[in-house]
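Recap slide: Lipoprotein, sequence and predicted structure.
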Amino acid sequence: MKKLIIIPAICVTLMAGSCDEDDAKIAARNVSKAADNFEINRRVVFYNGITDSYILTVEGMCSMDLNGAGTAFNVICKTGPSEYKRHTLVLSDNTSAFVEQLAPATVSAYHYRVTFKPQSIIPDVDFRGDAGELTSNMSEAMQ
């Protein structure tokens, strides 16, 4: 009898906990997901606060993040169907980065976006070397 009461109570608690998300949080996550999939046109400006000058301006379908230590700002942009450019700014007390989204994005404020990419499961393996090196004995070649 207790199990019949506990299971619905747990379900109601889980459903009530998931209702606490604001529309802005869901939309922001979906815009970030779209940018990470190179669907958002952005302008990224690296700025020097001491000289009041731009160090670098990058525009295009770009995704960005901070490194693990928070000391470098990484930007990767899609320049063609399978072409990408990466820019990194090492952050200091006098440099900063500004990111501007150049056009509005159409995303849902009610449903999280999930990207499932089955081709990423199988790695792309590159073989570097010479078949001759595998079949020859290097110790004999050195004598």
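The chain is about 30% helix and 30% strand.
The radius of gyration is 25 Å.
(End of recap.)
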